Amino acid sequence: MEKTDIIINADYLLPMDEGLAVIRKGAVAVRDGKIVAVGPASEISKQYTAETVMDGGGKVAFPGFVNTHTHAAMVYFRGLADDLPLKVWLEEHIWPAEGRWLSPEFVGDAVELACLEMLKAGITAYNDMYFFGDAIAQSTKKIGMRAVIGVGILDFPSISASTTDEYFSNAEDFIKRWLNDDLIIPNIAPHAPYTCAPENMMRARKVAEQYDVPLHVHLSETQWEVGEIKSRYGRTPVELLESIGFLDERVLAAHCVWPTDREIEILAERRVGVSHCIESNLKLASGIAPVVKMLNAGVNVTFGTDGAASNNDLDILSEMSTAAKLHKAVSGDPTALNAKQAMLMATRRAAEAVGLGRKTGSLEPGKAADIVIASIDRPHLTPIYDIYSHIVYSMSSSDVETVLVNGRILVEKRRLLTADEEEIMGKARDWGVRIREQNSHS
What we know:
The chain is α/β, with parallel strands linked by helices. The protein folds into two domains: 2-63 and 369-416, Urease, subunit C, domain 1; 65-353, TIM Barrel (Alpha-Beta Barrel). α3 crosses α16 (421-441) and α13 (339-346) crosses α15. It is globular, with a radius of gyration of 21 Å. The chain has helices at residues 41-47, 86-101, 104-120, 133-143, 164-178, 198-211, 223-233, 237-243, 261-269, 278-283, 291-297, 316-331, 339-346, 348-353, 387-393, 421-441; strands spanning 2-13, 23-31, 34-40, 48-54, 59-63, 65-70, 123-130, 146-153, 184-190, 215-219, 251-255, 273-276, 300-303, 371-375, 400-405, 408-412, 415-416. The protein is built from 16 helices and 17 strands. The chain is 40% helix and 24% strand. Strands 1, 2, 3, 4, 5, 14, 15, 16 and 17 form a nine-stranded mixed beta sheet that branches. The relative contact order is 0.16.
């Protein structure tokens, strides 16, 4: 018998392998943070022993979700400015609030709350774009979560930098500090074609190539953006980035709501990952991305929540359910974006899109043990005919019970084990009082 650290049993085990298998009465053996074996529980129990053996009765286990586009620290701006178009929401409310409040302390505290929310929703890794990257990384590591963290680049001054050179200096310093970390992948994140000139886009690309890190960008989010880029450069946003040589498989493009058919071809040819943020796009009335067209063209479309200030939660289960149903209606095809495809987009495909494909996204020997265990012993999940269907159309984040990252149990019985939940919530309330008081005086 081979010794391991943990054996996880489950009535239903979804490895998210190429065949999209469903293992009834399955088990995963974990040692030193890595998956050692996956298979029927009867076979695993014959080959492996463990100090900790988790009972699988009434449980489903699957790889942790990967949130491919968010601004985690914006949880502290949740509900601050709602029911507004993107340009007004961003320029008249969010950017001024960020200018007033952002600091390493603010961002660090906010990210703890975001990590707590995401872990409890079964998200084990996220792809972030924001400022004060060290504070984001430190809080994420404190909680024990995995993240790809992008330092934002803009053409104009912000709370984090006064000049273009300062933005890039900050980004390079951050990348160097976190380059070999086990949980954090640093990246560089030029905000969007309308906020970063082509020369700064390419400068960011050169940094990404130099350090072999991912790129993260907003792209074709609104009709206004498409019109603005056309008026400035005579091309649509995707065509512009293609013309300067920006696009390839290291790029994760958030939103892609308004691509033309030719632009979809370019995204597929260049193997650009796309983060579909349907709930944010709906709430800001930005539009509905042509996801079915993109998937049919071979684009790797995944799910992101965007920031909680425009969503207003960090819940991939909710994104999957909304997207899978909405795109059926929009396309007129009830078979479009089926449940298995949605789960794949939230796990294995998502990990691949943000540069984590070798580490996580599926339950396979050698990969990190980033695992979610959810209860299926609930009225809204009974009886079960198709477990994939139940997860996408019926499961809610409150069904998530246990979450592991790197083989470490971070959430058990819906309680965070790595930090004090009450302290995290208390800090959030305190910041909320300060922001509310400031708003009432302005």
